C-alpha cells in the first residue's frame, strides 16, 4: 500500500509538473501574442501616419498654387489702387495747394465771437 501511495504521489507530482509546464507555456504564448499585437499595432500606426502625411502634402501642394495665384491677384489689385491714388493726387494737388495758400495768405481780421464789448 505504501508503494501504491508513493506511486500515486509520484503521479500527482508529475501531473503537477506537467500542469505547471502547460501554464508556463500558456503564459509565454500570451506574452508572445501581446508582443506581436503591439508590434502589429505599431506598424499600423506608422502606415496610417505615413498615409495622412501624404494626404497633407497633397492637400498642401494643391492649395499652394491657389495661394500663389491669389497673392498675384492681390498684388495686381494693390498696384491698380495705388495708381488710382497717384492719379487723384496728380489731378487735385494744384487745387489743394491753392486752397491752403488762400487760407494762409488771405486773412480777414475779425473779432473773436466770444469777445464782448465792455462798456
From TrEMBL:
Transmembrane segments: none
Keyword Ubl conjugation attached: no
Matching InterPro entries: V-ATPase_G
Coiled coil: 12-54
GO annotation, cellular component aspect: vacuolar proton-transporting V-type ATPase, V1 domain
Keywords: Coiled coil, Hydrogen ion transport, Ion transport, Transport
GO MF annotation terms: ATP hydrolysis activity; proton-transporting ATPase activity, rotational mechanism
Record-linked Gene3D superfamilies: 1.20.5.2950
Record-linked Pfam families: V-ATPase_G (PF03179)
PANTHER family: V-TYPE PROTON ATPASE SUBUNIT G, VACUOLAR ATP SYNTHASE SUBUNIT G
Family per record: Belongs to the V-ATPase G subunit family.
Role, per record: Subunit of the V1 complex of vacuolar(H+)-ATPase (V-ATPase), a multisubunit enzyme composed of a peripheral complex (V1) that hydrolyzes ATP and a membrane integral complex (V0) that translocates protons. V-ATPase is responsible for acidifying and maintaining the pH of intracellular compartments and in some cell types, is targeted to the plasma membrane, where it is responsible for acidifying the extracellular environment.
Subunit: V-ATPase is a heteromultimeric enzyme made up of two complexes: the ATP-hydrolytic V1 complex and the proton translocation V0 complex.
Protein name stated in the entry: V-type proton ATPase subunit G
Species this protein is from: Ganoderma sinense ZZ0214-1
Amino acid at each position: 500500500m505504501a508503494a501504491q501511495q508513493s506511486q500515486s504521489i509520484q503521479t500527482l507530482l508529475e501531473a503537477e509538473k506537467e500542469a505547471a509546464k502547460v501554464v508556463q507555456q500558456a503564459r509565454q504564448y500570451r506574452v508572445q501574442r501581446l508582443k506581436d499585437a503591439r508590434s502589429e499595432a505599431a506598424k499600423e500606426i506608422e502606415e496610417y501616419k505615413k498615409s495622412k502625411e501624404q494626404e497633407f502634402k497633397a492637400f498642401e501642394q494643391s492649395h499652394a498654387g491657389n495661394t500663389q495665384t491669389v497673392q498675384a491677384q492681390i498684388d495686381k489689385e494693390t498696384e491698380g489702387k495705388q495708381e488710382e491714388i497717384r492719379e487723384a493726387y496728380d489731378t487735385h494737388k494744384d487745387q489743394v495747394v491753392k486752397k491752403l495758400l488762400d487760407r494762409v495768405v488771405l486773412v480777414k481780421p475779425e473779432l473773436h465771437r466770444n469777445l464782448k464789448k465792455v462798456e
